[in-house]
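Fold it.
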Amino acid sequence: QGSVSPDNGADHGHSPCMVLPRLTPLRGAAGLMVGGVVGSVLLRKPEENDFAGAPLKRKIQRFQSLVDRGQDPQSLRKRSEMVAALKSGEEFDVLIVGAGCTGAGAALDAATRGLKTACVERGDFANETSSRSSKLIWGGFKYLQVAFAELLDRKTLTAPVSSLQKFISEFLMVYECCQERSWLAGQQPHLVEYVPQAVPFKTLVQWPPYFNHPFYSILPILAYPAFVFYDLLAGFNAPPAYVMSARETKKNFPQLEAPLYSAVYCEAMHNDARTGTAIALTAAMKGATIANYVEMTGFVHGGPDGATATGVTCVDKLTGEQFVVKAKAIVLATGPFLDSVRRMEDPGADKAVAAAAGCHIVLPGYFTPGGMGFCELRNSRGATMYFLPWLGNTVVGSTDKKCDATSSPHVTEDEIQYLVNEAASCLSSDIRLRRSDVISAWQGWRPLYRDPNAPPDAPVSRHHAIGHDEHTGVSFICGGKWSTYRAMAEELIDKVVAFKGAPLAHAKPCVSKEIKLLGGDGFHSLLHVQLVQAYNVSTEVAKHLCHAYGTAAFHVCELAQPSLSGARLQRTVSRAGVPTDGGGHMGRRISPSYPYIEAEVLYACRHELAVSVKDMLTTRMRLAFLNSEAAKQAIPRVAALMAEELGWSSAEKARQIKVAQEYIGEFGGPVADKRGATLKAATFTDLHDIFLSVDKANAGYLDEKQLGEAAAKLGFPFRSDEHRRIKFKEADRSENGKLSEAEFIEWWNGRNSEKSRLALHKTVMLDAASEVAIDKSNASAK
């Protein structure tokens, strides 16, 4: 009865074979029930609970709301009170040395379990490794791909059990990273947000293959389903992966040359130092005694046999005063500096850290338009290059060099030039990358763990490791990554509690997944609009404050002063009262091109334990990481504000300025310092500009003397006139005494620099395979 004839079907838009069931009350009720369930899922209010499952509180409307909810920055103890508590002689349950993301995270975890917790940091919070990351909170996609590649290796046939165990270990690590990334972006949206990353492909088959494995020659075909699987591991909490056609890719990335298509996935990014500071301050708000610029100088022993570490000796680096902090459990969370702390106890201790240095350069924001990053998995020389949008600029990296860690962010000129050259090779000829486009550069360290008891040729692990010294009772953690800092802290405190037994038996279960870091309570995506409307700050400043301080941005705005003064602040308005001149805003900027305002300096001094100009411009406000020259220019004003706020003498103010100038001077910038450099190769644009600047007569060629001028401008002057003559003859392939621009560029980047380029490339290149969980390079580097 329900069949439809071809004529009737055509009249009603149905196919000839479609059968329409007869509607009955039962079927109608069932349909309404199914529709209601589906509708309730699809149409429910999107923000009923936070990521941890707790009901969302009402959105913050004013600063007093933050105070009422218990996230009042004003409630934090001052640094002097923290130090006094450390010196009191009272015994803590747990003392953590190091306040990077791992140490501060452990302090927060311990404090919220009811443990009396202390944490000391020799510098500012998150001021070393944790502030010099790639800015990614990543799930480990490359780790996953290389794990599959290793599973498909011929070695699996000879050792199937160990290969499978290794694969499962890597897979579980990626799964944990994805889950923790979802928690960070979901529970801490004021600090962490998803950013799309495009992976462009020029062909469907790549050779030499990605990850140096034949299977991945077809990665361009596998990329999109691989990214979907990657999203699955994160519970589909990130924006979904998608494909961009050649036209869309070129539209979004006009700087790329002839892409076939792009696979796009999302990773999370953050302002790492601000996240680290938020973790430390939240730990303090939860009861931890945490102090910056307090350095551990040794161990104190006691116990029945006199060998157990019962405390540490410390020095207050601001006053020089020395004191002892007592604790039942001592934990070393000093990252790549773990060995130097271990050798305070045992000068002959074997190395447990094989640090790897990673260098990043910062370019203007137009290299990543639209807030989307991209990754060249294998450029013409086999290197992996990342272009990541960060705070309005572009971070490009990275290198991977085995060396001992230092506190300095200094990057050699060779490494900066190397990254510039490699980055230029990823871009089309329409956008010329110059050495002078680098507006900042820094170096950080990956704290790779190496078992001191392992054979010399054992591989270095990029997993984290937790250990205990049975003799002294000291615990340590090394390795890991930003993505899993919370899970690492939970595991660390679990193991310390189990290791110590009865003295820490009162510890409660971990609750860190439920915690919102300082500024997270009441945060919402339109908070910046409320700041603009309530305080008349500019939209750019409001957005910056929201993602640096969360809802605590209300307090920063309370301290803001007008950007203009006197008559200049008067604004013209229409009859309806709408401003028509875009006049002055609240908030005096530290640097005219960046959204940092003077009120942040006051806020950091009063409520964030900030004590130095250097820190203010590097970790509290990231100006030195974004533009080193702008940071240098801001030093005097920041010093004046801090001197007034903290009551510095003129001598202390001068000392602070000097320290800041020296430290920020170690960051790279647009002016190349070629002293000691060996890499002569430069970008085409730089060589073209040098050629034109020397060829003042526009003759179209250089003579021998002009070649000397060009070499000097490039930072590599000839040793003598005779040396110049020999090199000119070498470059003049036409043998006419005239060096054309093509001959000049070919010679400078060719025979003249190839040896040094290849040597540096081998030393610092970061390819996809070298960034995976097991580093196969020289693991025993001392």
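The longest strand covers residues 322-332.
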